[in-house]
């Protein structure tokens, strides 16, 4: 008897559990439908066609979407049903057109009622809730009264008639822009433009800027306060003609800057050793020609009264000459037996003509060469020479 009671109790509990599971499975979730308000017409002009756009989050493979449009008296003026089967989309959109003429719609307030049906347990079921969306049908304007212009996107602004909401579009009228983030030598800047009609804005990146030199003498080598790089020569004065006549780097006034005098360096060549040599002295040039050197013309022009000094050194064991702006290199060469022969000339600004320095590791004499020619520089590199960077800068004029 006790066993029979236990068996009946077990059967009853199982039946209750199955009933709960079945109800839960049926009512666990429903598909969701909603109006996309930003994309739907809130006002439709009589004689024209408006739209209502819906977004659906499906839950079942087979679903129907119902939309009925009623006037203010509850009369049905139109309806539509859409069915979807075996879809794998996570979100769906569909749009219905409200043709006021085809639906014989007068001016007034209308309501769109919408809901979903889904197929489950071999029959169709309506979702428990329906929803409504209200819109207006207005008489066409005989003369539009537009509101204020508003930003639409980066290309245009828009305004609407306050009566019928008819839109009107026009391209932006941008001002000259304001720098909202200054560029430096590491990162580009940003410039913001404002439409003078609607007040909308757009941003543009500006190119990476110049170095910010920290020294107070533009005729000497300086260090950038942003990235830490050395100028590798005098930076030269920089003026902003639209603001004032003061140098952006050192603050000196343009009118007080001494006019730069320039002079020439002669380029000589020793056919017996392959060495090139530079001198600004007419006397030394003549002595070298008498000793068998070839005169190759003016090598470059340099500033006579400004600029960073370029040192000349001589290696007595090989007869090699070397030129350097680097004080540390000068001192190292002197410690290794090179003779210091003084300042050969001055380097021009680091915005002028670059004189490249190359080294031939296989040569003992004529192992160093300087050239402003990119073609000659590349030809020497292709022939096995080592590029050692910028030797100095010469004047553009």
Write the layout of secondary structure elements.
Blueprint: H1 2-27, E1 32-35, E2 43-45, E3 49-57, E4 63-70, E5 76-84, E6 92-99, E7 108-120, E8 123-126, E9 131-138, E10 150-151, E11 156-160, E12 167-171, E13 178-181, E14 189-194, E15 201-206, E16 221-223, E17 230-234, E18 262-270, E19 275-279, H2 282-290, E20 294-303, E21 308-315, E22 320-324, H3 327-335, E23 339-347, E24 353-359, E25 368-371, H4 374-382, E26 386-394
Parallel strand pairs: 2-9
Antiparallel strand pairs: 1-3, 3-6, 4-5, 4-7, 7-8, 7-9, 10-11, 11-12, 13-14, 14-15, 16-17, 18-19, 18-20, 21-22, 21-23, 24-25, 24-26
| SSE run | HEEEEEEEEEEEEEEEEEEEHEEEHEEEHE
Mean pLDDT: 80
Q: Give the radius of gyration.
A: 43 Å
Largest sheet: 6 strands, mixed
Describe this structure in words.
By secondary structure, the chain is mainly β. The protein has three domains: 107 residues, Immunoglobulin-like, CATH 2.60.40.2550; 67 residues, no CATH class; 133 residues, no CATH class. The chain contains four helices and 26 strands. The strands form eight sheets. Strands 2, 4, 5, 7, 8 and 9 form a six-stranded mixed sheet that branches. Strands 1-3-6 form a three-stranded antiparallel sheet, with no helix packed on it.
